[in-house]
Amino acid sequence: MSTRIKSKRKPCWIKEADFDIETTTVFPKPDYSKYQNMSITEIFEKFIDDEIIQHFVVETKNYALFLNCPDPNITVNEIRCFLAILYVSGYNDLPSKRHYWDNGDDMKNIAVSQSMRRDRFLQICRFFHCSNNTEINQNDKGWKIRPFMEMLKKRCVDNFVPEEHLAYDESMVKYFGRHSCKQFIRGKPIRFGYKIWCLNTKDGYLVNFDLYQGKNLKSNSDYEKLFGKAASPLLVLLDEIPDNKRKLKYNIYMDNLFSSPALFSFLRFRGYSAIGTIRDNRIPKNCPLTNKTEFKKKNRGYFETAMERNDGLLYLRWMDNAVVTMISSSCGSQHVGQVKRFSQKEKRNVLVPRPRLIAKYNTYMGGTDQMDQNIACYRIGIRGKKWYWPLITWMFDVALQNSWILYNKAGGTKINQLDFKREIVNVYLRSYQTKPKAIGRPSKSTFSTDCRVSDSIRFDKIDHMVKQTEDKKKKRCAGKNCKSIMRTMCSKCNVGLCIDCFIPFHTS
Predict the structure, then answer these.
(1) CB 170 within 8 A of CB 160
(2) Inter-axis angle of helices 417-431 and 367-377, to 10 degrees?
(3) Tens of pLDDT along 17-37?
(4) Are the beta carbons of 352 and 338 closer than 8 angstroms?
(5) Which of its termini does the chain have fewer beta carbons within 10 Å around, N or C?
(6) How confident is the model at residue 445 (pLDDT cuts 50, 70, 90)?
(7) What are phi and psi of 259, to 5 degrees?
(8) What is the distance between the alpha carbons of residues 15 and 315, in angstroms, rounded to a whole number?
(9) CB 169 within 8 A of CB 369
């Protein structure tokens, strides 16, 4: 026997109905004065601050000891320098992380190689960690990144300057390995990866987020029963916003994965307006809108509306290239505008009527997509073998993207994302660098018998002259099995060579 309590109220539908006046609220104007006099790095450190960096230092040390390895003695400055090198890989992409220290002029990144030794960077990559491996939460599939995730979420919410329009959608983080949280979504730009529930502003600022993992540790069972597993995270994310910001009258936009009459009624009860597309199987069966099959025969631009008097929700069906069905608790079809569409019959662009509800949805729904686009421009390119590495680098990218949006919103000179990221990188690499004490041992090469000089240059027998080293500094001989130190070198190969090794070095 069903336990669902059926309402005794009979549905009362009003065909061709609309809101008499569009629901408007007096929303406070966004105030960014707090960030006006801050530099780029100061705003960035509102998200990745000393507490987070210190957390990485402690957990990285603990993980090395957990693996029964010597204490790497990683410092706060090295973690900040490590983070800057990760950001470099977003706009200066090389085949592998080792190539940033390659001796070739076509590969070597001087800023990176002079700020940290290659082996030190690889050592930090190996032990970099977010959580204590001795404190495992079996109920949380994302326990490896949970401490960092919670700290970053708090900073995103705390630095959120309230804006009236928010979009709720899903974002994908690319991952092709094996993990129980990995999802496949057909038709997405990123089909394989982790799914993140995101609440964004129109410009892409990430207000709050959570990792989808099936049965969620932080899920609310009541929300899931009433609104489903896809929509309930929205209410949890809203609940995590502080009271002074949560009580504002937001307009929330979502797509048909989340929209339902029950959710929209509950959001209106909480004081929020909502607009979204809706699936046919979620529309009340007695709704008087023309069924989808018949509606396809209508001319482009035709629309119908219907409102149920008891819950006050408006349903709208509009004929575009396909049938579009919307649900709204605030905005209706008044102030019908026009939009350009190409007519196959007339072979030209024509103006098609478009209700205001559709136009408003198109304007404010793309916040999460805007964030994905911002991150994709200069996504961290250094890869790792751990399942949680893509999520960590995604959160680093989110922190930078949010700080960039805040900086531009605060007024003054606007800056593009690349210049913003380069400013942080240059400040960090210069301020927190640990210069190498000496030149390391050259790495092996597959295209030359000596990786410092290409064979095509070394054996061409053209203009190889003996000259003194710069400032008459001593150099070690590059000859095979020669350990002598001299002040002579080859003018073309730019390597130290003693007189005895000069001819053998240039002979194949």
Answers:
(1) no
(2) 50
(3) 777 656 666 788 999 999 998
(4) yes
(5) N
(6) very low
(7) -65, 140
(8) 10
(9) yes
Residue 448: band (very low, low, confident or very high) from pLDDT cuts 50, 70, 90: very low
Query: Given a cut of 80, is residue 136 above it in pLDDT?
Result: yes
433, 116 contact by CB (below 8 A): yes
Helix (H) or strand (E) holding 56: helix 50-66
The amino acid occupying position 502 is F
Amino acid at 173: V
Distance between CA atoms of 478 and 488, rounded to whole angstroms? 11
Residue from 85, 73, 66, 165 nearest 426 by CA: 85
- Determine how β-strand 273-277 pairs with β-strand 323-328: antiparallel
Strands 303-308 and 313-319, how do they pair?
antiparallel
Decide: 488 and 473 in contact? Cβ < 8 Å: no
CB within 8 A of 74, min separation 6: which ones?
57, 60, 61, 124, 127
User: What are the residues whose beta carbons fall under 8 Å from the beta carbon of 286, sequence distance 6 or more?
Assistant: 11, 13
CA distances from 231 to 160, 219, 223, 278 (A): 22, 11, 8, 13
DSSP 371-407: HHHHHHHT------SSTTHHHHHHHHHHHHHHHHHHH
Percent of the chain topping pLDDT 90: 56
β-strand pairing of 251-254 with 192-201: unpaired
Q: Looking at residue 2, what is its pLDDT?
A: 40
Q: Structure pTM? A: 0.84
What are residue 193's DSSP bridge partners? 174, 183
* Rounded Cα gap, residues 132 and 143, in angstroms: 9
Residues 6+ apart with CB under 8 A from 304: 15, 16, 289, 290, 295, 316, 317
pLDDT single digits (tens) 362-400: 999 999 999 999 999 999 999 988 999 999 999 999 999
Contact 330, 273 (CB under 8 A): yes
Looking up tokens 């990760």 gives 86
Q: CA gyration radius for the chain? A: 30
